[in-house]
Amino acid sequence: MAKSMLPTDYHSNEDSHDENVDNYSSDESDIEEDGYERDVRVNGRLRDSPQQNGSAVQQFDRYGFLGGHQFTDPDDERRTPIETLRKRELKWLDMFQNWEKWMSKRFKKVKERCRKGIPPSIRARAWQFLCGSKYMMEHNKGRFEEYLMQTVDPKWAEDIKKDLHRQFPLHEMFMSKEGHGQEDLYKILIAYTIHNPQDGYCQAQGPIAAVLLMHMPAEEAFWCFVSICEKYIPSYYSPGLEAVQVDGEVLFGLLKKTNPSIYKHLKKHRVEPLLYMTEWFMCIFSRTLPWSCVLRVWDMFFCEGVKIIFRVALVILRYAFASSEQLSKCQGLYETLEQMKHLPKELYDEGFIVRESLRLNISERDMEREHQKQVQRRKAAKEKGVRPGSGKTKRK
User: Fold this and answer.
1) What is the pLDDT of residue 8?
2) CA 379 to chain centre
3) What is the pLDDT of residues 99-156, one digit of tens each?
4) For the chain, which residues make up each domain, given as ranges?
5) Which helix (H) or strand (E) holds 75?
6) In the chain, which residue ranges form alpha helices assigned H by DSSP?
7) Of 227, 357, 229, whose CA–CA distance to 293 is shortest?
């Protein structure tokens, strides 16, 4: 399992489930993400604003989306008093002034504030402090521009350009081929192929870089991107996706512990983890969850690491098949995968996802134990000439 890599001295071994998770619900007075509580309208249509001069005008939501799965209907938003947001901002600004002290001596409080949701006005800065990219950029001044001046591999350049239009095409930053969003996205992805030529470029990196660009300038986003790829989920984007395959088996093992009935169903119909968890993990749910939920998950991910991805994945699986009736309707692999694509209404509420993910009765120790088990299992399978996870002998 990829480690929950915070800046080296700041890693916490505290288990998530031992705290009062009710503190992280959607209670408007204290912990709503960004000061909002909302339902998310999931559709593929563009939203029309009120009529102007006899014709409808298309309207962006507060996150910059014009339509599609990630669109948040402004009519469904309820604002929290501005005073609540200002108090949270001041607390974060105070932490920034004494960051090392907070992370080394009061990490539990930092974690609590990340779980409540980072105020949008300082989210970008908080992410950079949490992942250490702020320090990486300071120690590599000018490096990003140097990367952009170097000769690039034509194959990577071509692959990246082909994928640019696929990254959140209904977001205002990435709608135009000539826009600064696609231009900066190309810069980040091509610079990473210079920075890490062994891994080069993987299509799943696009959404990660795009989310970062929605919050910060290209150079800051690049170093944040480097931190995610190399510290939080190392080897996820390497050829062969070995780390993703291992974590898929880890997830399946944890599912057996937390929800045996769903585990048995997936096993019965041979629904292998890679068929449903690959996009969740490699894109950190940015192409799966409503946007307000994505941001809450990322806030926790930057603080606590990859274990948050496992927890959220287990919650999705649990509520996708919340009843025996839902399970019984899925008579095969196809029906089961289709059920996972349609999120239940509970998962449109970011507070609900946070609360339920922290309530899961699994510890970091459980995850590490399952990881070691799967690594040893795959090693033994390879030594016997068996393809891991299949029980079938590999072709010579």
Assistant:
1) 34
2) 28
3) 999 999 999 999 999 999 999 999 999 999 999 999 999 999 999 999 999 999 999 9
4) 19-49+60-119, 137-232, 242-383
5) none
6) 82-97, 99-105, 107-116, 123-131, 133-138, 143-149, 154-163, 180-195, 205-213, 218-227, 242-258, 260-268, 278-282, 291-304, 307-320, 324-329, 333-341, 350-359, 364-383
7) 357
Assign domain 242-383 to its CATH superfamily. Ypt/Rab-GAP domain of gyp1p, domain 3 (1.10.472.80)
Model confidence pLDDT, tens digit, residues 85-95: 899 999 999 99
- Token pair 């604003």 is found at 49
SS3 142: coil
CA–CA dist 126, 213 (Å, integer) = 15
DSSP state of 176: -
Using 50 as the pLDDT threshold, list the residues of the chain that sit under it: 3-18, 26-56, 391, 393-396
User: Distance from CA of residue 145 to its chain's centroid?
Assistant: 27
Q: Which two tokens stand for residue 134?
A: 């702020």
Q: How crowded is residue 165: how many other Cβ atoms within 10 Å of its Cβ?
A: 13
For 259, other C-beta atoms within 10 Å of its C-beta total 17
Class of residue 32 by CB neighbours under 10 A (exposed 0-12, middle 13-18, buried 19+): buried
Considering the segment(s) 137-232 as one domain, its CATH architecture is Orthogonal Bundle (1.10)
Token pair for 239 = 């050829």
